[in-house]
Amino acid sequence: MTTQPLAPPRPKSPEAAAPRVLIAPITITPSKPLTPSHLKGLLWTDVMYRATRHLAPVTYRYSHTTYHPTEQTLGFWEFLDRTLGDTDYTHATETEIGAHYVTFRAQTQRPTAAALRPYADAAEHGWVHPASARILQLWAGHYRRLGLTDPGLTLHQPPGLSLEDALSHLDQAGMCLDLRRYGGPVHLDLTRHGLPLRKIVTPDGRPNYLACALRELIPLAPGFDEIVLLYDPELDPDYQLIERVLTRLGPTVHRVPVGRVPIDGHIRSARHGDWQHTHAAALLDAAGDHHSDDAVRLGMRLYFIALLGPGQQQSFRPDLLHQCLTRATRLLKAADTPAGDQLPALLQRHRKDHTHIDPYRLTSALLGKRRPAPPADLLTGVFL
Amino acid sequence: MTTPATLSVSGVQDRLRHQLATRLATARPDLARRHDLTTPAGLAAAQQDIAALSDETTTLAAVVVHHLDLPAFAVATCAYTASLDDTQQAAWRRDFTRTVFLAGNPANLRHRFTFAHTDPAAHLAYTAPGPAAATAPLRRLLKLFDAPARLPARPPTLLTIPTPPGLRPTRPPRHRRLHLATAGCTLAQALVHLNHLLAEAVMDGLITGGDRLTLIQEPTLTTAGPAFAAWRITPHPATPHHTGRLHAAAALTEETPHA
Question: Which Pfam families match (chain B) (predicted)?
């Protein structure tokens, strides 16, 4: 087993005082409609990225290619081909494809490693199942309507390390417990830090999302001073592990859990379906009927970031979303003259002891009753 | 299918049952008093009593396994057992040298946990036998050693049991053969078999520092062949459990010249 040499940390030039920031959120499996929880995470990340860009060089890494090798994606592809066969997904909707995903996730029998292998091999070389390609195409449309930066939804963006090279890197750092020669799994081993062993590769060679994330983040980490990881709170134990692995490579790592959005009091995984009228396309259509494109973009951010906040206590409220859209229309009309050179200083206030901007603090600041009208370039540069 | 009368299957089973009963009676004389261990029914009743013992009151050892090499493991288990004092040995023996095998890297754990013994390569680390609660934090951090693979083929391998530092051998070194049945046996099971057999052999004085063992892996053990001094008897892996048929999973011969 050889290890691909990791890119050495790029030396910081003396004049470049601003730390280099990597924003790396967890991706969403391209198999279903975007739910309010997904929208919240995407909007949260986008505001962070676009605001921080005014202060420091920022890389927004969001590669679906990296996570295709997970069983939930490969298994879905294999399931579609096995149960539907040759199917034209060109005009399929997200909810149609999502309905198949719900059926797939309800299966009790897991696909075998052998059944997934052709899909895993193809995905490594850039192949995407037409059902997921269709989903990503639809999502790209939602991104445009929401004013979200497209981080390359439909691009082939492979991780910098093969699975074996990532494991080899971990092994050299004493962080890998590889039991495959005994017929066992591979564990990520951060017991040195008091964190429990975590299985990352099954005995038959299937990596989980954590292994996929490490393939991507280990080679990226040395090139940054600050890494921001955004994820569901339920994944917190895994992200503590990732933080430990990456911190060793140099950067300061910040974990930013973004709470999900309960529907009628329940936090439900998208794998259960039941999207009703709360998925992205439905929300965008309903909002677009009464509000301008800009008001929809700003209003969605006001609701999903400022109103809902980082926690996950408050259920989705269409009435409050509507109020935010109306508020956004007023804010847009009242927009003040551009802040110009002062914009970075204005944004600086909304960060703590780190470089990246806190989207909640920044967005909430728009809603204060006695706040001055927001500068127009803050709105266009960060929220629209 | 009937068994030809010339093959003495029942004789072998009687011998295995006798060895199993001896092991139970040595560890737990109270069980021998309560049940007639010479009969299959009495043996089964005693085993039910053992199975019903509360985990919380059981004395057990935990072994952290990073890299597994059976000869090194056999040596380490003997050295570990020999390092225990009489009280520790007696408590562990009373619970049938119960041991939990955990996947982990001793190098990552030594700052947080105290181990009674670590092998020279630091691939194996043993906790002192104690109540289950004493190893609960370690067990929460690690996973059971998951090793369903078959044993790799190995030629007979000579092992030397180290003499604890500062101690002189108590008798001239002896050589024995250590047989391990490989048919139907996984690596994880081999660990269990060797661990019980060797730990108890050390306690019984069959193995001591300076002794040598030749580890022999073979599909099955022939109980009619060599004279065995200690046995590891389990339910037969290829027959239903309820039949009560027994199997010699591993065994240690009487002293033999080293060829």
Answer: DUF6182
